[in-house]
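Q: I have 440 residues here and want to know how they pack in 3D. Can you give me a structure?
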Amino acid sequence: MKKISNAAMIGDLGVTLIQRIVQEMGFLWYPSGGTEAGIDGTIEIRHKETGEATNLIIQVQSKASEGPFQAETSTSFEYLCTERDIDYWMNGNTPVILIRSRPSRNEAYWMSIQHHFADPTKRGARKITFDKTANRFEVSSRAELEALTLPISTGLDLGSEPRNEIIYSDLVPVRSLPEHYYSARTEFANQKSVLAELASSRKQFPRGFIVNGKTIYSFHDLGEGTWSAVCEAGTVERNATADWADITEPHRGRLFVELLNSTLRDQLYGDGISFSKMEDCFFMRGGEDLQNQSRSYESRQKAATRTVFKAYRSKKDKEQISYYRHAAFSGRFVSYGGRWYLQITPTYRFTKDGFRSSHLSALALSGIKRLENNQAVHGQVVMWASQLREQTLFSTNQLIQFDELLQFSLDHGFDDAAWLKREPAGPSLILDDSGQGGLL
């Protein structure tokens, strides 16, 4: 008896959802049918007013499912592409979009493959992060799809012009790491149990270490101080950091990144920056008085100040605090070309008392992300990069030291207004260097 899998049925429903939305746009949809190698259908741009078909096309790869998306939150989710798919999509000269959908909920989200993976960093990571608001595939996406197919003859020239332009990345280069790291055997199975034992001594101790296979690893000398309480005598070894940092074996590489993460968390804590494991981000702590805080930093052209902790009062009762907003960022250590970088993704954390997450977190974060523009996000990246760099310039115990935000100088530039994705109609939040915002 012939059987059709559930996955095949869901895939068909995803294509059907795409077809309906495309037709509501007034465009034409041509399913691939039969054997296909990464393309499920083609959109042809059609002028809705005249009915004229243009022969301007966009290829579509559909990925449908009914369960939770990868790394899904209330505002975003991720999708990891295969290297084979990316090569296939990028080798053609026709625009390709990837559409992730959940047919039973009429949800669909899209991303232009060529635009997204034109960034070498993103192509290397193979990951697409979908914003559930900005990347929604719906009738209002019509103009953006048309823009993907505009030919040179329309007068929109995307060619480069002879001018200098600085391209800023979200990568902060690691300037230096400690020359050595230390390892020692321990009877404790994990970091939590080691921390509990060290805390029982009521003496200060560094928290920048990891435990794996009953071995402690740290950039701190495990033969000194209170470490003797958790390390087996005679097992401390000193090793060259460069030897570990250059290892390409996946398991050892992940351990090294864990050590970098643990060290950075310990390093930033002393300057009022904590790490939220639940929300996977670093955030500016509020002071004991929970008063608004600002940080000074060097922006691209001048000294600037940004509000990094702020109280928001209840609209119903001005005497009550609704929540506190913390400037925050997600940080990921990555290695390119033999050098380590910290990739910064700015965000916010919302708490009810300066520490515990607010029940309004998802709503508040969704609202501010929906209103922020590219300039505001870039300003936050610059601020965090400056804060990380200043930690190393003015502190004596910073084990991980950072350089300035990675940037590139090009002798040709593009007209940003012509190719940057249009922001959705409606109010826009402009954050100036003071960190204050206003609706336009």
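Q: Anything worth noting?
A: The chain has two domains: 6-154, 172-439. The two ends are 62 Å apart (CA to CA).
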